[in-house]
Each structure stands twice: as structure tokens, then as C-alpha cells.
Amino acid sequence: MEDYLATTRNGHQLVDNYAPDSNTLDIRSNGAYPSGVLSNLCSNGFRFDGMVCGSMEGFLQSLKQKDKDKQRQICSMKGGNARKHSVTSWQTDQIVWWKGVAIDRQSEEYQKLLRRAYQAMFDQSERFRAALMQTRGITLTHSSGEKNPYKTIITEQELCQILTEMRDNYDKRDKHLESLNNNNTLKNLSYVVFSHGKESGPLGTKIQRLMAVAEEFGLKTKFIDYRECATAGERVSLLNDYLNQLDVPINQVLLVGSSMGGYVSMVVANDQPVAGLFLMAPALWMTAEEYTVQSYAPKTPHIEITHGMLDDTVPYENSIRFAKEHDGTILHLVPDDHRLKESHDFLAYQFQRFLEDISKQD
Asked: How far is Cα 277 from Cα 292, in angstroms, rounded to an integer?
């Protein structure tokens, strides 16, 4: 938890950059919370387009590198180290690079790239997200930033506009979620059914966290206990049997599955037109002896997958393959292992968004 009362960091004095007279907050790396956390130099790590970003500064400085290996190296750096690798050669032709693709610094394509990167950091870094949301109603400034877009990778205006738009959009979403909570209902949804992994139980920490989110919206929740099942096929049959005896339409039932539970949910959705699939490290295309179904065509347009890129149990490339083969699938690759134990806050946040998106559908 960020100590907002701290006046020093690593022996250095922090500056209160909030100006009450003008109701502005100046974003500076030496700023007291939340100013310093919003700085590009802060070590708010995230993953973006399959690349490890040690900080936003790392990502921004890496854009100046055409060489992919050099770009990957700088992208992974913390802010101060990344800044040491700043170069100005890109200014001549105003071309920057991302994963081997040349991009005009002054183009709309570049602006979209910046927004996607900041959104990825916002989604994945709870510290950054909390700091930004603490500035509600405050005008953001960045007085140390360069104003000329031909001389800098991101101007003061671009930075503050991106952060303000993300903050305000999230605030609107929060207010809508609060309204949904007050109404104690979500349109188009009745049940959320959870399926655990092969070696875990029905009340693991991920499932408990997501169940709490669903219940906040007034949804009925059910976890299936598969521990007596000898095979993945038996688990599929058990979930099918449960869904068939529900007293609500199957298209009002959302399936949530982790690992083997993700596979089970996916196989069931091959035949059952469920409301959606929210999957964590789903065991797709694993050994055919155990996972006998190797073809996936779920009867739902709402599919979201989160997979750790450090997963040594189920390759995250399998989730990439599924997303490529099924348009509309939302895939999050996070810096975590198979259990996703460091991503619970991220999962809860994405699950809220997933429920809200489904509720908006006609």
C-alpha cells in the first residue's frame, strides 16, 4: 500500500506538487504521492504486446530503437536506467519503432499505440491505478515535460490528456457499476458457475475473489467440486448435468474456469450456448490422452482469457493460438505463473468489466 504521508523516498526529500489554489497536481518523479507514482520514471511494471515493460519510461525509450533486441532490453528497464539510453536520432525523420514496425511519431497510429500502452499499465498496475484515481477532480500538469512533439516521445499535453481520459473513463465505469449494484441486478445474467483446476479445490483464492465480485452484482454463484472425478471427461459430464438442471435459460449462465476448469468450461460451451467464458490459464490443446477434446468452437461471443507468461504448466502460446482462431476473444498476458497468484486484483478488475460488458448486450 502506498504511504501517501511519506515525505522521503530512498533518503531523498519528496515534494508536495499539489497546488490547492489552482487545484492542479504537477507530475514529477520526486513528487509526493500520488505525483511520483504517476511519473513515467516510476517502476510500474506491466506487459504490453508480449513485451515486458519495467516502467513506462522503459517502453517510451525503447520506441527509439529499431533493433528488436535492443528495444526489448530497454523496454524491460526501470525508469532511471531506461532514461540513460535516450537518443535523439529518431527526431531527424520522426520515425519510431515498435516490434519491427516503423511508425510516424506525428501519426494517429502513434497516438493509439501510446494509449494502448498506458491502458495496459493502468489495467495491470494496481499502484498506478490507485494513484491516478486519487486525482479525481484535479487538473494534471507536467511542468518538466517538453511541449514540442517533434523533440520528445511524449509531450506534457499528450501525457496529461491520456491520464485524464483514462481516469475519467474509469470513474464513469465505477459510477455505472455502483448504479448496477444499487439495482442489485445485471441484465442478461443470472448464474456464474466456477470450475477449479486439476490439483486445486472448489474454493481456491481466485475463485473466492471472483465469486465475491459476482455476488456484489446480485448474481447467483455455484462452484462445482470435481475432486472425485477421475478424468477431465467426467468433469465435463458433471458440469453439463448441473447446467441442464438449472431453472434459468442457459444463455444467462456465465462459466468461469481455471486451468483444467477452463478446458472443462470450454468443452461444455462447445455444445451449450452460455452467456460467456471467463478463463484463467485454460488447459487447451494439452495431452490428448487426458484432454480428449482438441477442437474448440464455443457457442458464445463473450470470451476473455488471462494467462501468465511465466506459466510452466500450460503454455501461454495455447491461449494466443485460441485468440487468433476466434475473433473477438479478449486475451490478457500477464507477468505471472500458472496459479496467477500475483494477479488477483487484476482478475477481479477485469471480471467486473467483463460482467458489465455482457450486461450491456441486447
From this structure: 20
Inside any domain, residue 81:
yes
Cα–Cα distance for residue pair 112/119, rounded to 1 Å: 10
Output the pLDDT for position 124. Answer: 85
Question: Which pLDDT score, from 0 to 100, does residue 44 have?
Answer: 94
Question: What confidence score (pLDDT) does residue 5 get?
Answer: 46
**Using an 8 Å Cβ cutoff, are 238 and 193 in contact?**
no
| 212/10 Cα distance (integer angstroms) | 38
Residue 3 domain-assigned (yes or no): no
Q: What is the maximum span of the chain, computed from C-alpha positions, in angstroms?
A: 69
pLDDT for 72 equals 96
pLDDT for the residue numbered 3 = 45
Question: Which of 176, 206, 226 is the last residue before a domain boundary?
Answer: 176
Are residue 135 and residue 242 in the same domain, yes or no?
no
Query: What pLDDT, on a 0 to 100 scale, did the predictor assign at position 50?
Result: 85
Q: What total of structural domains would you count in the chain?
A: 2
Residues of the chain with pLDDT under 50: 1-5, 180, 184-185, 362
149, 176, 203 - which closes a domain: 176
Task: Residue 168: give its domain's CATH number.
Answer: 1.10.357.40
Which pLDDT score, from 0 to 100, does residue 1 have?
A: 39
pTM: 0.58
Q: Can you give the residue range of the structural domain that contains 215?
A: 184-360
